[in-house]
Amino acid sequence: GEVVEFPKFHTVATYGHAAAAGAMGVGAYAYDELLIPEGFTAPGPVDIWFDALGSRLSQVETRLKPDFSAIDGIDTTFFGADSDGTGFPNFFGTSASAPVAAAVGALVLEIAGGPGSLTPDELRATLMSTASPHDLDLWSIDADASLRPVTLKVEVDADASKVAVSDTETI
Question: What is the pTM of this model?
Answer without folding.
Answer: 0.69
